[in-house]
């Protein structure tokens, strides 16, 4: 480029004359809002109105309402907050929220991490991830109904107790005739433990039979007909049978035709408080005790008539909160797995191979390489679940039965009960809402700072 001198000659390398940068013809730089701030304001106005109506106003009104009594007319200041912290139900809710905050995100993230790592080594990883993630498609209401059935106390209805009872019964014998007992006129005495002992003593060569009643039909439906025991020299024999004939045609205390034997019943010979002989009734109801049982009393242990093992009271006062957390983990472990698997896909495989080349085993690679590289993703999952857990409501409301609802109480449920329950006090409910907001705020601030920190990278 060249410029002309006074004599008309061009001088190379010199820029042509231009108006100064700050001259009247210079263009002003665009502002952040652009050349028309009012246009941006027009587009932002609907969002700001919605934000104010759905977020700012409810928060402000909750703070305002928490300073008034149940009617909303009398100003009470901080009395609602004082009542909240002195109420046992609110204290239980805060304690349970802390348990939720510690257990639910930790267990869900840990399971998600395990699933994400293990599915990298199987062929049907996609199908497995689909099955684990599928509960996310189910609403909390439906999940609560499902797990209310899963945790049913009756093993015939509840899946959890059906599995638990099956395992228990595989290692221990079930009582043969729960609820049965000797006929009142059979000459027996019931002890405080539930055992039945004959008043008369046993004699060798003279059978001692015991008639029982109140057995359940299912327990004797397939039993053989009872047989009278034959006397044996030097041995004590007898029969234990179900003393009942349809139509009431049988004779009490006698083995009538068609009356059922009570097989598998344990009998003991007791002398001076010591057991000197034991036996189990055969398929026809008969038993045989050794000669040393002569002169002893016949005892039927209480185990014969005790109720069968009925599983664990999952929704009882002591286990209701962990049980509900288990249902939450079932839903959200898939969410954690998907996010962690996405983060795991971005981990350089060269680092893992280098660690293996240096002699590290799989556990060391997982602990020293995989987990540190996934730390940002793990923090996202944990913080997200912590925010979600602080406002848990529907699972607790649906799964916990009425007798255990107070023991499973959480802040969101206590807020609902205080505001819309039997004793309506929306001032107290608003105070609980403000407390819940204050508890969630630190987690939200941590999450916002993390997002800003990652955006600068």
TrEMBL record:
One of its GO terms (cellular component) is plasma membrane. Keywords: Cell membrane, Membrane, Transmembrane, Transmembrane helix, Transport. Residues 1-30, 175-203 are annotated as: Disordered. Residues 94-447 form the ABC transmembrane type-1 domain. It is a multi-pass membrane protein. Residues 188-203 have a biased composition (Polar residues). It holds the Pfam family BPD_transp_1. Residues 15-26 have a biased composition (Low complexity). GO terms for biological process: carbohydrate metabolic process; transmembrane transport. The keyword Membrane applies. This is ABC transporter permease.
């Amino acid at each position: 480029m060249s410029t002309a001198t006074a004599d008309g000659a061009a001088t190379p390398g010199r820029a042509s004359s231009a108006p100064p940068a700050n001259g009247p013809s210079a263009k002003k730089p665009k502002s952040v809002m652009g050349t028309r701030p009012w246009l941006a304001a027009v587009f932002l106005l609907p969002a700001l109105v919605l934000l104010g109506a759905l977020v700012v106003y409810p928060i402000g009104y909750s703070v305002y309402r928490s300073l008034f009594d149940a009617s909303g007319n009398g100003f009470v200041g901080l009395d609602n907050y004082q009542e909240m912290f002195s109420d046992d139900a609110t204290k239980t809710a805060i304690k349970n929220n802390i348990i939720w905050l510690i257990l639910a995100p930790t267990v869900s993230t840990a399971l998600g991490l395990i699933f994400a790592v293990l599915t990298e080594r199987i062929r049907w990883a996609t199908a497995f991830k689909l099955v684990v993630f599928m509960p996310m498609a189910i609403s909390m209401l439906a999940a609560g109904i499902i797990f209310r059935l899963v945790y049913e106390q009756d093993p015939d209805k509840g899946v959890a107790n059906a599995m638990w009872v099956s395992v228990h019964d595989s290692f221990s014998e079930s009582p043969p005739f729960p609820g049965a007992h000797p006929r009142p006129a059979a000459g027996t005495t019931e002890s405080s433990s539930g055992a039945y002992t004959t008043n008369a003593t046993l004699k060798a060569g003279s059978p001692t039979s015991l008639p029982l009643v109140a057995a359940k039909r299912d327990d004797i439906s397939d039993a053989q007909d009872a047989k009278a025991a034959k006397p044996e020299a030097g041995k004590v024999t007898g029969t234990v049978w179900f003393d009942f004939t349809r139509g009431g045609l049988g004779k009490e205390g006698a083995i009538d035709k068609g009356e059922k034997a009570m097989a598998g019943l344990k009998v003991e010979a007791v002398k001076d408080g010591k057991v000197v002989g034991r036996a189990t009734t055969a398929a026809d109801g008969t038993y045989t005790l050794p000669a040393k049982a002569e002169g002893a009393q016949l005892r039927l242990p209480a185990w014969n008539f005790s109720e069968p093992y009925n599983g664990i009271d999952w929704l009882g006062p002591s286990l209701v909160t962990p049980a509900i957390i288990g249902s939450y983990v079932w839903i959200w472990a898939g969410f954690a797995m998907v996010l962690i698997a996405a983060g795991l896909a971005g981990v350089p495989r060269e680092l893992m191979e280098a660690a293996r080349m240096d002699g590290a085993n799989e556990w060391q690679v997982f602990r020293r390489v995989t987990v540190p590289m996934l730390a940002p993703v793990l923090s996202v999952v944990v913080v997200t679940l912590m925010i979600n857990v602080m406002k848990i409501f529907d699972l607790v409301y649906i799964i916990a039965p009425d007798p255990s609802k107070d023991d499973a109480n959480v802040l969101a449920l206590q807020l609902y009960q205080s505001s819309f329950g039997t004793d309506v006090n929306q001032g107290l409910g608003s105070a609980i809402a403000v407390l819940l907001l204050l508890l969630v705020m630190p987690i939200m601030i941590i999450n916002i700072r993390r997002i800003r920190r990652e955006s600068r990278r």
